[in-house]
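stage 2 :: seqdesign
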């Protein structure tokens, strides 16, 4: 594999990262909101966890298709930072011991998406191409 392979497939792999992260993330929201995948814990919609479920589900769907990727990813990155410091860090500072490793990972993946956008396979990229007349 040559050094030129990364730029050639970079935008596609960025899209893959966005799509896979969004799919897994929206499952957290669907579990909180609809009990799917099956769970015994469905928080009230107007609770902190219920609002988190709405952000996870709706934000996950928007990221999945790559629509408004930068602002949505920025909001979700902040949400995951708050989730870590509010729910995980008080239990133990080490992410492997407090269960917050996923929150940290989502926080930084979403922060990355907020900076670079959704990649080649996104609604945002299609809209940009249409605006430029390509």
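stage 2 :: out
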């Amino acid at each position: 594999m040559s050094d030129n392979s990364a730029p050639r497939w970079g935008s596609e792999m960025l899209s893959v990262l966005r799509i896979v992260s969004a799919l897994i993330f929206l499952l957290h929201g669907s579990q909180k909101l609809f009990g799917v995948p099956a769970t015994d814990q469905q928080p009230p919609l107007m609770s902190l966890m219920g609002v988190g479920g709405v952000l996870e589900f709706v934000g996950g769907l928007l990221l999945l298709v790559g629509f408004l990727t930068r602002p949505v990813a920025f909001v979700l990155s902040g949400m995951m930072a708050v989730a870590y410091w509010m729910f995980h860090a008080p239990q133990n500072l080490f992410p492997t011991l407090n269960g917050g490793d996923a929150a940290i990972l989502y926080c930084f993946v979403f922060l990355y998406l907020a900076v670079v956008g959704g990649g080649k396979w996104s609604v945002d990229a299609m809209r940009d191409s249409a605006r430029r007349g390509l």
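stage 3 :: structure notes
- The chain has a mean pLDDT of 92.
- The chain has one domain: 7-132.
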